[in-house]
Amino acid sequence: MATNSSRGRALPARSAIPQLPWDQVRPAPVVLVTGSETVLGDRTIRLLRDILRAEDPSLEVHDIDAGAYSPGELLTLASPSLFGEPRFLRVEGAEKMTDAFLEETLAYIQSPADETYLVIRHTSGVRGKKLLDAIRAGTGGGIEIVCAELKRDSDKQDFVAAEFAAARRRITGGALRALVTAFSGDLAELAAACQQLLSDTTGATSDEITEETVAKYYGGRVETTAFAVADAAIAGHYGEALGLLRHALASGADPVPIVAAFASKIRTMAKLSGQRGSSNDLAQRFGLAPWQVDRAKRDLQGWTDAGLGRAIELLAEADTQVKGGGRDPVYALEVVVAQLSDRSRR
């Protein structure tokens, strides 16, 4: 299996044509867009259209449904127009292509029309393999854009970084991780969140997107999973906390915000340990909301000052581990859950 090492994505093997990531698409007589990631596929085709339209605003755009193809449709749309405008032919549903589309496209790529750009979107399956093999062998002088599903957090962070770079906006590493944690399960939601964040912060005092910015707009999404793990562990429910942790990690959550959630709760508990007064008084004194005071008081049951001190030291070490100071961030998190759940250490 060939690999695009700069982005860590698996690419189809034995291809004689360039295979590029979505944000490096460029004009070619035939552009094959493969892979199941719909968001990246859509972005690829839209970006290529915009590139071509910037070169020539008279660009003609036509859509072809390969699964409902009418014989002769491709040749008709690719025929030179009266004024010679360039043509952009978008083919969707190539994984369901008809026999007529297969035969006519195989013939077409032997000699693509001048000033015509044929973009074929094929998401999965073996239907049309003969056409894909021909394009990958170099027939038609094409390129392939591989839009495989983004499963790793690092790939999703690359995607977010590209979104902000395209808008010429800066985003910190912590903000990148927070966004990916909040929307790890759906790339479409992650993309929408990035665009909304860009829109909402246009004209802000600072054009840099930070963790605080993400927390302001999406704090609930960022914190929900991480704080659920922390709540269970601090309550002494080891099995529940470990299960929640593993589910969160399997869903793509980043270890850094999870440690941050533990640290936030333990710090609040340490502030309030031994303090007397009403929830409102303590909230004003420590800059907290009354509900945070009430929750911390409940969390403090069974904890000693010495136990809180040990917890703070444990979390400081874990924070270093998950930010690159250790070999296994997941193991560091499991140690945190195990030790904070252990009532004997309190």
Describe, in short, the structure shown:
The protein is α/β, with parallel strands linked by helices and 346 residues long. Helix content is 54%, strand content 12%. The two termini are 51 Å apart.
Describe the secondary structure blueprint for this structure.
Elements: E1 2-4, E2 9-11, E3 19-20, E4 30-34, H1 38-55, E5 60-65, H2 73-78, E6 87-92, H3 99-108, E7 116-122, H4 129-136, E8 143-146, H5 153-166, E9 170-171, H6 173-182, H7 187-200, E10 208-209, H8 211-234, H9 238-250, H10 255-272, H11 279-286, H12 290-299, H13 305-325, H14 329-341
Parallel strand pairs: 3-8, 4-7, 4-8, 5-6, 6-7, 9-10
Antiparallel strand pairs: 1-2
Helix pairs in contact: 5-6, 5-7, 6-8, 8-9, 8-10, 8-14, 9-14, 10-12, 10-13, 11-12, 13-14
Describe the structure.
- The protein contains 14 helices and 10 strands.
- The chain is α/β, with parallel strands linked by helices.
- The protein has 2 domains: 2-146, Rossmann fold (3-Layer(aba) Sandwich), CATH 3.40.50.300; 154-345, Zinc Finger, Delta Prime, domain 3 (Up-down Bundle).
- The protein has a 6-stranded parallel β-sheet, sandwiched between helices. The chain has a two-stranded antiparallel ribbon with strand order 1-2. Strands 9-10 form a two-stranded parallel sheet.
- β1 and β2 (9-11) form a beta hairpin.
- The chain is elongated.
